[in-house]
Amino acid sequence: DPAFCHRFRLRHRRNPPLLGFFDIFCNISFIPTLEAPNRIPPGRFSLQLDHGDGDFMSLGCRHGLVLIYLRKRLQILVWDPVTADQHRLAIPPGVAACGGKTPINGAVLRAPGDVQHFQVVLVVRHSDDEQHTRVIACVYSSKTGLWGDPISTLFPYQAVEADVFSFATLISTNVAVLAGDSLHW
Question: What is the model's pTM?
Answer without folding.
Answer: 0.75
